[in-house]
């Protein structure tokens, strides 16, 4: 059975788990309100390996959240995954951040439209649509929120918005009777089953050329005039 180290760094939550098959053996997360992934990631990885009584040599693959999400966070996670994959001579599995967020929610909401979303600043979110069994309802996109957003929702009787971008929707879409769960966060825990499915199908990325799915180009902030 595959033993997979899952790395999630697409948001301010730095999350790591070790999974054996679909089962999570150990999970460690840092929820500080700043991007401290560079300092915390290796510490969390060491912790989950110790808790699961495994060594690096016992791993079958590295799974990493591919995005969308924070440019800096994704770079850190993917760089770490590449380093481990090369050193251990094992493959990398890329998992869509938004689909992984939906994995746990879908189990209890089979007849719903699931819309995970990540805050992209101002009134914009990164989002995607999934049915309860994680089939795509609409593709990953950057959405500028308005009362006209998410026309796909009309085909469903129950629509769930979740993730750190969901709170933005409340004032814009609330009259339509949708449900909002802004406290649901991206977590390595949601990656385990998806990563195992990809492992069984040998659905691996090219370690040398793999890049995160940023969705939007990175724009560096301009320094303030002195």
From TrEMBL:
SUPFAM superfamilies given in the database record: Actin-like ATPase domain (SSF53067)
Alphabetical UniProt keywords: Transferase
Gcp-like domain span: 36-145
Gene Ontology molecular-function annotations: transferase activity
A Pfam family: TsaD
BP-aspect Gene Ontology terms: tRNA threonylcarbamoyladenosine modification
Keyword Disulfide bond: no
Domain of life: Bacteria
Keyword match Transferase: yes
A GO CC term assigned to this protein in UniProt: cytosol
Classification via PANTHER family: TRNA N6-ADENOSINE THREONYLCARBAMOYLTRANSFERASE (PTHR11735), TRNA THREONYLCARBAMOYLADENOSINE BIOSYNTHESIS PROTEIN TSAB (PTHR11735:SF11)
Protein name: tRNA (Adenosine(37)-N6)-threonylcarbamoyltransferase complex dimerization subunit type 1 TsaB
Lineage: Bacteria, Pseudomonadati, Bacteroidota, Flavobacteriia, Flavobacteriales
């Amino acid at each position: 059975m595959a033993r997979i180290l899952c790395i999630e760094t697409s948001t301010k939550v730095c999350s790591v788990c070790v999974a054996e098959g679909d089962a999570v053996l150990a999970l460690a997360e840092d929820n500080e309100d700043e991007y401290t992934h560079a300092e915390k990631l290796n510490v969390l990885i060491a912790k989950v390996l110790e808790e699961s009584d495994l060594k690096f040599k016992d791993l079958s693959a590295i799974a990493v959240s591919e995005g969308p999400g924070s440019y800096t966070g994704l770079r850190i996670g993917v760089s770490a995954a590449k380093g481990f994959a090369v050193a251990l001579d094992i493959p990398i599995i890329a998992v869509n951040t938004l689909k992984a967020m939906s994995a746990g929610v879908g189990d209890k909401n089979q007849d719903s439209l699931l819309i995970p979303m990540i805050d992209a600043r101002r009134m914009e979110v990164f989002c995607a649509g999934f049915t309860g069994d994680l089939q795509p309802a609409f593709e990953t996109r950057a959405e500028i929120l308005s009362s006209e957003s998410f026309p796909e929702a009309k085909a469903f009787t129950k629509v769930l918005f979740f993730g750190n971008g969901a709170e933005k929707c409340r004032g814009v879409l609330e009259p339509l009777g949708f449900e909002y769960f802004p406290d649901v966060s991206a977590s390595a825990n949601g990656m385990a089953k998806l990563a195992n499915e990809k492992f069984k199908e040998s659905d691996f990325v090219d370690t040398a050329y793999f890049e995160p799915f940023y969705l939007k180009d990175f724009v560096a902030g301009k320094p303030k005039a002195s």
